[in-house]
Please model this.
Amino acid sequence: VQPLTFRKLADDELRSAGDLFCQTVHSRPPSDEIWAYSRRSYQSDRTFGAFDGDTLVGTTYSWDSALTVPGGRMLPMAAVTRVGVRTDHTRRGALTGLMRRQLASAADADMVFAGLLASEPVIYGRFGFGIATLSSIVRIRRPLARVRPEAATSGVVRLLSVEDALAQLPKAYAAMLPGRPGMIDRSDVYWALGYERRMRGEDFFAAAHYTESGVIDGCVLYDINEPADPLAGATLSVVDFQAANEAATNDLWRFLLGVDLVDEVVVYGRPVDDPIQALLVNGAAARCDVREDALWIRLVDVPAALAARPYDGDPVVIEVRDPLLDTNSGRYRVSPHGTERTEAAAELTMDVDVLAMLYLGAWRATDLVGAGRITAVDPTAAARADRLFAHDRQPWSGTFF
Ligand SMILES: CC(C)(COP(=O)(O)OP(=O)(O)OC[C@H]1O[C@@H](n2cnc3c(N)ncnc32)[C@H](O)[C@@H]1OP(=O)(O)O)[C@@H](O)C(=O)NCCC(=O)NCCS
Model:
């Protein structure tokens, strides 16, 4: 067995990388028509390959995005996706070699974070990724559900043509972005596959919420699946639900729950603090399942990430271990007045994937000490870290990539 080799792929190798990825997730390689969309969603110089001799056996890709952090700043993030290793070459270190190169390259490109959605939760912790946002799948039995009349309302919801969706939604989404920690910049990459392909080829509908002055401040993308039983109602599945304020959120729910001949409305990925049960006359019509695996982030540049968000309360000294990007390893004094490297004794020690879990505010240090993920050298430090990293809104990503 010869050792695998690794390198970046050229543009004319992207189709083989795309085909390989599809094979690893057990789906059919894209037709020429679908490849035309996928090709547009590849940025040059961001795909890596693992080779057995001349044969491509593994691949990973990222596009340049940005992550909203607590306090509202957006920092560069490599959005990692299309990760796959050929079935007959797994568990030989292909992914490990690919990830090492991809993360080093992200650091060279001044990315502060890498982010991904994981197919299986066991894969990415070893590369420094931690679960940084949670999300909730909301299922509503539509015939029983009605939005409370007293819930704020404004403007109107209108269906969009694919042309209008592509012309108007990217700008509208960009304006909503600072809304929550965890939201990411979508750039053109997302809209080609996320909206255009689905609306043109897969019977998806987009609708926008317009304010009274005609500005879009919310949108949904959904499809409706007819059941096999002709007497049963259909399921309306929402794959994108964005809203800049409560009135837009409420009106989009009113719209979705008003679609006729639908038994169930399912929204994949609302924030865990979405007050949907309180919003409905019959709150029990909604069921929410928390998914623990929404956006995983990796702090590629720990000092830059720590310095980019605000903190509250009293300082704490954290020791971070990062064997893969070793310049991140060390002790940091985190305080409301800034973050700096320090030689002071560590009060909490953790691996860099656990820092990712704390960073956006999804998890509390106290709970991570309880779970054995953080070692509290000073027993008072976890409560201080709880306050330092807390944020008033639950982080949420809301973009599938
Ligand atoms: C997930 C996948 C990319 C891993 O690739 P790989 O080349 O086998 O990974 P490596 O050989 O570098 O494994 C590194 C380590 O992770 C472990 N690991 C990797 N994938 C794992 C999995 N799915 N389940 C459990 N452990 C896994 C390996 O056992 C190994 O552990 P070790 O260092 O203790 O021996 C590959 O199995 C695959 O393509 N799966 C199907 C597609 C997929 O899920 N893609 C991810 C989309 S987000």
About this structure: The chain is about 25% helix and 30% strand. Residues 94-108 form the longest helix (15 residues). The CA atoms of residues 135 and 266 lie 13 Å apart.
